[in-house]
Amino acid sequence: MPERPIRSIIAKQKILTATAEITVAEAARLMKKKSVGAVMVVKDNGCLTGIFTERDAVYGVLAEGRDPRTTRLADVMTPKPQTIAPDKPFGHALLLMYESGFRHVPVVEDGKPVGMVSARDALAPELLAFESELQRRTRIGEILG
Predict the structure, then answer these.
(1) pTM
(2) pLDDT digits (tens, 9 = 90+) for 124-138
């Protein structure tokens, strides 16, 4: 998994982008609808300018007493986030997240977002292996039963 190219992980993603002018409340609704923890903030030309995450909503809006209906993403997003190219290995993204203390990395090609990798992506293979092991143990238990 760590050596898999990021491009293969994001292949089926439908990316979520928004402009910096929308409100936090609007962004939160979009994130809920798409079941994602972050939105990539883009300029009019489609180039990445920032990222807004669940953590930004909690720490930068709620904890500061800001009104999510009037606070714009531009005021609370992380500007110029660290990004990664789609042809890099996933392990590189994991190391970047670990060393920098964040959970989402925008995947960018020619300045434009093409996907997002998250710490959650690292769990997928392990969860599948865990489920497979549980099924195997259940079958063994039924045989020995």
Answers:
(1) 0.81
(2) 665 566 666 677 777
